[in-house]
Specification:
The chain is mostly beta strands. Helix content is 0%, strand content 50%. A hairpin with a 5-residue loop joins β5 and β6.
């Protein structure tokens, strides 16, 4: 049973940085991992994903600003967010997929989710 716990959210001024962490217990190394976000009144969207071989995928709006990485020894996935914008404000969720064939944003492919952490970027 995989359990995901996010940390690192908070409030920051536009242009600032935050680092989100997701600690994963259980069978972790073979999983694809993803970060999703959901803003009020909007659908949940994929932000960054990482497969077991290290391949990554980013939504266009965060390319060059966000970086996803994993530390297998610590069973942790990190999302480094730089040059934050007010439109990045959302609840961010960590997710794990046991059926993926590569990094992807198909929500239905992710069968484990964290509780979410709020990120607020002030203009």
């Amino acid at each position: 049973q995989v359990v995901l716990v996010e940390s690192g959210g908070g409030s920051v001024q536009a242009g600032g940085s935050l680092r989100l962490s997701c600690e994963a217990s259980g069978f972790y190394r073979s999983y694809c991992m993803g970060w999703f976000r959901q803003a009020p009144g909007k659908e949940r969207e994929g932000v960054a994903a990482l497969d077991k071989d290290g391949s990554t995928k980013y939504v266009d709006s965060v390319k060059g600003r966000f970086t996803i990485s994993r530390d297998n020894a610590r069973s942790t996935v990190t999302l480094q967010m730089n040059s934050l914008k007010p439109e990045d404000t959302a609840v961010y969720y960590c997710a794990a997929s046991t059926v993926c064939t590569g990094p992807e944003f198909v929500i239905q492919a992710y069968d484990r989710w964290g509780q979410g952490t709020q990120v607020t970027v002030l203009a």
